[in-house]
## 1
Amino acid sequence: MGSTPTLCSLFIWIWLGKGIRMKKTTCYTYFSIKGEFDPDEITSILGIQPVKTFRASEPRYYLKNGQKIDTGYKYSCSCWDGCRCDEYDVIISNQMEKTIEPLIPKIDLLNEIRERFEATYTLEVVPSICCEHEKPCISPSMKVIDFCSKVRADLDIDWYIDNV
């Protein structure tokens, strides 16, 4: 994990959803921590329940008809994902702020975790945009930018676009 993330880096990945038809635009946001650690220890330090965790070297799988299918691969690092917000707002910055709200008082703890475990942080934004409906404004507020800067978090926006 030795590399240091760039302050407030912005990575945009666009996927054109051929064959997938969404009924409306949606979005979810969450905060992700990756590194060499026990996710239970991160939960204990932050006092926040994650929505998803996995440990380095655990097998990766996907679900098919409710069954776990092993991919044959293992996770290369541990992950703790938390503070997920599914409450869509056309002003996506409002969702980002709801995600970071419980983390703002824990900036010092997050910085300690980053140093101790060489962890990297990402504020994940995942809009699924239906071209026939309103288009979201995906512009982080200064509050979001300040938070990302203080904990050295990347901002990752994974766009899924239905090009009906």
## 2
Amino acid sequence: MRAVFRILNRLIVVPAFKAGLGWIISNPIAGNIMVLGITGRKTGRMRYTPVSYARRGKMIYCYRGREMQGQWYLNLLANPRVEVILPDGRFSGLGEEVIDSKERVDAMRLLMQASGLSSSLNGFDPSKASDEVVAEMIQGIAVIRIILD
């Protein structure tokens, strides 16, 4: 299944965002989707990958799932300067892992609420769940903050 998503991302999602058509893909059903441009830690080449996101002012949050290998995540840790392609434009910024537990919970709550129909897969309502419930659900998930320039 991962191979199918890789092909769809490479042939449809990333080109659509680069052409300014991200608003078609990022919608209330699919959730907030952006394309993240990160320099490869081994190749030095720019790599693009779609990820879910939530925005709070000049900050963009995204995450690496528990079961994901997350090459984009490892690349971001090695090269934190990123390109962010949102449905409303292209930006650059600096990414880093969120360490503060309160910010992690708040960011994941935003991300879950912005995830479209898949938000129902969490097994709880993120807007009503306690911080403790959200914190337990996100153990092992890396939360990333990108501060836009």
